[in-house]
Amino acid sequence: MEMFDGIDTDKDGKLTEAELEAHRAAMFTAADANGDGMLSADELSAQQLARFSEKLAERTARMIENRDNDGDGSLSLTEVDEGPGQRHFARIDSDNDGAISKAEAESAMDMMGKRKHRKGMMGGADN
């Protein structure tokens, strides 16, 4: 949905087939670095890497914006906060021995994957 506004060139809140085709052609042309009308594996990889880098930069900026309590533009250890392993330690440590075994970690990952799959099936975000 975040790309919608960029594709909707006449800004009428709707996408036509012509707008979608123009967007597809522009994306192809941008990826075709050598201008030969064909996309090589290297050109496709570069296109995907550029998209990933853009998304990562946006995510990183949001993370700093949300967690930078002292406003210095960087995150300290306390601002980074606990990771998911620490937040859910007691639940993941299913045998309550004070440690997470590889089997317990795999089980937690399996359960997380199943939850994401169910959210996706129900129309929820799977972030």
Automatic annotation (TrEMBL):
It comes from Tabrizicola piscis. This is Histidine kinase. Residues 1-30, 89-115 form the EF-hand domain. It comes from the Bacteria. Pfam families: EF-hand_5 (PF13202). SUPFAM superfamilies: EF-hand (SSF47473). Residues 65-127 are annotated as: Disordered. GO terms for molecular function: calcium ion binding; kinase activity. Keywords: Kinase, Metal-binding, Repeat, Transferase.
